[in-house]
């Protein structure tokens, strides 16, 4: 059986793929221009006629779209999507929204066709990660307005795998259900995958005895953070895969079963530009920011959307043996530009702290980062990492704290205060974990 | 047949359903033979949807489709 959901697209010659993308991009821009007043204004102001888009260079003449513009447009009519909407309200069948961690949530309208497209993008992800019609996949997720697990649920259906919905259950009930029906895979945030393993042990099970052989992660970058990935693999005795997506754009990246750590870009369904600070495309081997256009959206299209995710671009053949020609983000999403923060003049990526904490078994899985002004010198930032004792290794709190402080300094160049507290003192969120608490006043 | 038509009689409706059925089965077979799950599983999904359309067209045969040869066996 094919390792790829669609080998015709996933192994397509690069020149042919580029030409296909430009054609689909033109159609997408034309649709947006003809149906969304928001895009018509933008494109008219930039003097863009969709029919003139013939080459990749033409694509870069089209103005980008920023998240702030979406929020602004959604303040207008028709409620609740504003004139971003490129379909009649009757055609909208799905409502979702962003989590709002970086501001007011953006609402996402999808038509039935869009929803089928979401399922297909997610089927690309799940098939690459080994989900097949004979799998029984559990979704330990309180089904709500967060899109990712809904789309993954329907992708399983599309693949022909059996879906076991695990909403509205406690973590203990979820673990028992997984055991009872012998699920072979589950999808969750990396944080919650670790939490479920803890709960399984509390319930008297050994998670590695479960039939689970695949864990699909979404919602946080953890499964491409080596320390976190290794912890989940060890906890469940399963292969752990990453995916990258956004409520607005869709599921645009996926790890595969090949010998690589990072994400293939789904270039069959998206035109993904990786650009430097001046908006110029970076070369393989360089790092840049993603500007993305989903290529088959009806109700709420995104034309050159500034995703604010930073990746290290590679040619697939250089890093992966799976045979895909889709380019590659080595190490996954390196940083969400919205998450980066400056501490005493040094740029800090929260994932760097995550990797240090999760790579050290003297502490448990959960942690929190507090940034505040120094008590006596308010201009000085103080980073406090709160971690928990690890009952499995029994390393004393003071010793664990010293070691963690040393490792954090080595990796982030920042001298952190480390506070190791009792096991299970910290909250264990089911959805996206907001571990960074920035309490600094006047900090932009 | 023209897209604008809205006056199909029942025989013609049945023929349209049969055309869709045939196209979906051909796509599924292509996907299977050439190992393209996106086509094979997508066509299977179309066949599933089509089976409910058939239920709403009097006299359209509930054959083949997403359930393989089972429906045919049941009819005989
Ligand atoms: Zn690969």
From TrEMBL, chain A:
Record flagged with keyword Ligase: yes
Ranges for domain AMP-dependent ligase C-terminal: 345-440
Superkingdom per UniProt: Archaea
InterPro entries, per database record: AMP-bd_C_sf (IPR045851), AMP-dep_Lig_C (IPR028154), AMP-dep_synth/lig_dom (IPR000873), ANL_N_sf (IPR042099)
Pfam families: AMP-binding, AMP-binding_C_2
EC number of this enzyme: 6.2.1.30
GO MF annotation: an example: phenylacetate-CoA ligase activity
Keywords per UniProt: Ligase
Protein name: Phenylacetate--CoA ligase
Species name: Halarchaeum rubridurum
UniProtKB/TrEMBL annotation, chain B:
Protein known as: Uncharacterized protein
């Amino acid at each position: 059986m094919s390792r790829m959901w669609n080998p015709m697209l996933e192994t397509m010659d690069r020149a042919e793929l580029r030409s296909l993308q430009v054609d689909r991009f033109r159609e997408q821009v034309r649709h947006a221009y003809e149906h969304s007043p928001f895009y018509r204004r933008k494109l008219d102001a930039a003097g863009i006629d969709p029919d003139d888009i013939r080459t990749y260079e033409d694509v870069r003449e089209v103005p980008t779209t920023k998240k702030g513009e979406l929020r602004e447009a959604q303040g207008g009519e028709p409620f609740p999507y504003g004139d971003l909407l490129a379909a009649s309200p009757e055609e909208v069948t799905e409502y979702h929204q962003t989590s709002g961690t970086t501001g007011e949530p953006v609402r996402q309208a999808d038509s039935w066709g869009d929803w089928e497209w979401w399922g297909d993008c997610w089927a690309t992800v799940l098939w690459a990660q080994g989900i097949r019609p004979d799998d029984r996949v559990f979704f330990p997720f309180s089904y709500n307005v967060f899109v990712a697990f809904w789309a993954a649920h329907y992708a399983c259906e599309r693949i022909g795998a059996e879906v076991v919905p695990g909403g509205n259950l406690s973590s203990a009930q979820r673990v028992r259900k997984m055991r009872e029906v012998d699920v072979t895979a589950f999808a969750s945030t990396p944080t919650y995958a670790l939490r479920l393993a803890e709960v399984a042990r509390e319930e008297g099970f050994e998670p590695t005895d479960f039939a689970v052989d695949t864990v699909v992660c979404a919602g946080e970058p953890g499964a491409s953070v080596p320390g976190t990935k290794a912890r989940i693999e060890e906890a469940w005795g399963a292969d752990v895969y990453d995916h990258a997506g956004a409520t607005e754009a869709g599921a645009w990246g996926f790890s595969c079963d090949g010998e690589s750590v990072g994400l293939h870009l789904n270039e069959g369904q998206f035109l993904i530009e990786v650009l430097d600070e001046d908006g110029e495309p970076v070369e393989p081997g360089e790092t840049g920011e993603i500007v993305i256009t989903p290529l088959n959206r009806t109700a709420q299209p995104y034309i050159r959307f500034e995703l604010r995710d930073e990746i290290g671009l590679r040619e697939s053949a250089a890093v992966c043996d799976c045979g895909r020609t889709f380019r590659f983000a080595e190490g996954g999403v390196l940083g969400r530009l919205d998450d980066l923060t400056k501490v005493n003049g040094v740029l800090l990526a929260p994932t760097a702290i995550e990797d240090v904490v999760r790579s050290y078994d003297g502490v448990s899985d959960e942690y929190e980062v507090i940034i505040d002004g120094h008590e006596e010198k308010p201009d000085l930032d103080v980073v406090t990492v709160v971690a928990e004792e690890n009952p499995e290794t029994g390393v004393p709190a003071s010793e664990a704290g010293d070691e963690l402080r040393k490792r954090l300094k080595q990796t982030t160049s920042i001298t952190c205060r480390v506070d190791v507290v009792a096991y299970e003192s910290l909250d264990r969120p089911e959805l996206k974990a907001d571990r960074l608490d920035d309490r600094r006043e006047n900090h932009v | 047949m023209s897209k604008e038509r809205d006056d199909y009689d029942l025989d013609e409706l049945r023929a349209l359903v049969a055309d869709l059925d045939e196209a979906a089965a051909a796509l599924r077979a292509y996907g299977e033979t050439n190992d393209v799950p996106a086509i094979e599983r997508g066509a299977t999904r179309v066949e599933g949807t089509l089976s409910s359309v058939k239920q709403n067209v009097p006299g359209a045969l509930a054959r083949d489709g997403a359930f393989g040869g089972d429906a045919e066996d049941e009819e005989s």
